[in-house]
Write a structure and sequence with these properties.
The structure holds 2 protein chains of 2 kinds. By secondary structure, chain A is α/β, with parallel strands linked by helices. Chain A is built from 8 helices and 14 strands. In chain A, the strands form 3 sheets. Chain A has a 6-stranded mixed sheet, sandwiched between helices. In chain A, helix 4 packs antiparallel against helix 5. Chain B has a single domain, classed as Serine Threonine Protein Phosphatase 5, Tetratricopeptide repeat, CATH 1.25.40.340. In chain B, helix 2 packs across helix 3. In chain B, 66% of the residues are buried. The chains are: A alpha/beta, B mainly alpha. Chains A and B meet through strand 4 and helix 3 of A and helix 3 and helix 4 of B.
């Protein structure tokens, strides 16, 4: 294992200390219990948005704390959800009197810890609503599994619900917008290599040189199946073959297309992926109205990508385009 | 013989030792079907619980010790294991409320409450390849032992043995809950790490009771 770290147990704290130093204009980082909060929090009368989860998915979530997106992010240990006491502290720090929305990726650990934190917040007199994101189409049948995982759609939920909160929507409205975005978002990912969690020092799974893991989550956990590696266009078609019929996305739909890197894939390759995805959507008669290309929700240094589609309407486009000022998304302000 | 708060604190110490000793094994099991951090997370939690025991007043009850474990694990473990173990000990503490000494029926009540807490929080049933697959046979065996007149030591021995068997029995199962469920059929052939750590923790409870009995006998 080669990593630019000092000690495995210091990875999250030192990374967050650096994040705080680099983005002091946007955020404050509270070291104990650890969470990242927008500089001007709590904003009186505004619904607070809190998300979080295991570290190792950067820029998710700390990179999305700021104006027009999250009010706080709670990073856990690498690939391990944060504990309820931290989530509670972040929730209290962003409560401006209008209640707090928890945005939770559907992973058992995240759900259980946020659920416990929401109970504690309620006991402390804070109104909390939770939206559990589950946009990953790789997981088929929730009767036999913990249900679909929350992946790339989470970024879009955070952005669009964040814009709604910023314009002054109340908690019920922000929650409804978040739920709507999650319901209309679908993702599918592929890994070309595993990643190495600093603590364990071991690859999360093994793949031969000529293999890819299809239908992955965001922790390097194995996916739907192991397939022979193929050229990028064929991989993109496979991803879209899984995503498109699922909602389904149909001729005439307007969508946001996100080509997300898993952390170890260069932007040039993501644009190759985007190129084919956009071409294919044009063939299907689906209009790409907005796009996002880059590392948004990653799995450490894993090579691979994920595509996310979100069906758009005028309101979602307006919210997407509204000003946002975070470390990793910034426009219009 | 009944057990008291010394048993409860000894249980925590022995659990911490067992988790420390098997930290790498638990993580390896978790790497096979989960995300490979179970041993690390539980170790972090139990080391914190060990440290917290120092602050426990001398006149504490078993319920106080169990409550301390619950809150420490919840705020230090993270992942799914934190809330699951934390809820287990929280409910166990509730079942021990007001008791200075625990008899066979009390121990069964504690284990039952812990198991019910895990089921409530994790929404998993027996046979879904989770912690429940260790805890439910343990509760059943403990109840049967208490029913037939066993003392606390034998009740906990029965629970520990059944939990170990339950953990081994998770190997062929297909996971229906947690991270391993995403593997579907591919999860078969691997022991569930949560069931394995549960067996370690219940074995620690039995050893603490055996030790308490020996101290009393001599």
């Amino acid at each position: 294992m080669k990593k630019l770290i000092n000690a495995p147990e210091d990875v999250v704290a030192e990374s967050m200390a650096g994040f705080a130093a680099a983005h002091a204009d946007l955020v404050r980082v509270v070291p104990e219990p650890l969470y990242v909060v927008r500089r001007d929090a709590p904003v009186a009368g505004k619904v607070g948005l809190v998300s979080g989860g295991g570290s190792g998915h950067e820029p998710l979530h700390a990179g999305y704390v700021g104006f027009g997106m999250l009010d706080a992010a709670v990073p856990g240990a690498v690939f391990t959800s944060p504990t309820p006491d931290r989530i509670l502290a972040a929730t209290q720090a962003v409560d401006g009197g209008a209640g707090v929305l928890h945005i939770v990726k559907n992973y058992t650990g995240d759900v259980l810890n946020f659920e416990t934190a929401a109970d504690l917040a309620a006991a402390n007199g804070i109104e909390v609503r939770s939206v559990v994101t589950d946009d990953d189409v790789a997981v088929k049948d929730s009767l036999y599994t913990a249900g679909r995982r929350g992946t790339g759609g989470t970024v879009l939920v955070e952005r669009i619900a964040g814009a709604a909160a910023e314009r002054g929507d109340d908690l019920a409205q922000v929650a409804a917008i978040a739920e709507g975005v999650n319901a209309d978002a679908r993702s599918m990912g592929v890994a070309l290599t595993p990643c190495i969690v600093p603590h364990s020092g071991e690859p999360s799974f093994t793949l031969a040189e000529d293999e890819m893991e299809f239908g992955i989550g965001i922790h390097g956990e194995p996916g739907r199946e192991t397939l022979p590696l193929e050229p990028a266009d064929r991989v993109v078609d496979r991803l879209l073959d899984a995503i498109l019929p699922d909602l389904p996305y149909e001729r005439g739909d307007r969508v946001l297309l996100m080509a997300n890197g898993m952390g170890g894939t260069p932007l040039s390759e993501l644009y190759i992926v985007y190129r084919r995805a956009a071409e294919r959507l044009a063939e299907e008669g689906i209009e790409v109205a907005r796009s996002l290309v880059g590392d948004q929700i990653t799995a450490l240094e894993m090579q691979g990508c994920a595509l996310t589609l979100l069906r758009l309407d005028d309101e979602r486009i307006e919210l997407w385009d509204a000003p946002v000022q975070t470390a990793s998304l910034r426009w219009g302000r | 013989m009944d057990v008291d708060s010394n048993w409860a604190t000894d249980w925590v110490r022995r659990s911490a030792d067992a988790v420390a000793a098997h930290r790498a094994d638990l993580t390896a099991l978790d790497r096979a079907i989960g995300d490979g951090d179970h041993g690390e997370n539980l170790h972090r939690g139990y080391q914190a619980a060990l440290a917290a025991l120092d602050g426990l007043p001398d006149d504490s009850t078993p319920a106080d010790a169990l409550m301390l474990v619950a809150t420490t694990l919840i705020s230090n473990v993270g992942g799914a294991a934190g809330p699951l173990y934390g809820t287990a000990f929280l409910k166990a503490s509730g079942a021990a409320q007001g008791l200075d000494e625990l008899g066979p029926a009390d121990v069964v009540a504690i284990l039952t409450a812990a198991r019910d807490g895990i089921v409530l929080r994790g929404k998993a049933q027996h046979g879904e390849k989770t912690m429940v697959d260790a805890w439910t046979p343990a509760v059943d065996a403990a109840a049967a032992a208490a029913e037939s007149g066993s003392d606390v030591r034998d009740v906990l021995e029965a629970a520990a043995s059944a939990a170990e068997q339950g953990a081994a029995d998770t190997e062929p199962l297909v996971a229906r809950k947690g991270r391993a469920s995403y593997l579907g059929e591919r999860s078969a052939g691997h022991r569930d790490p949560g069931a394995e750590s549960s067996a370690l923790v219940l074995r620690a409870a039995a050893e603490a009771a055996a030790d308490a009995a020996e101290r009393r006998d001599t």
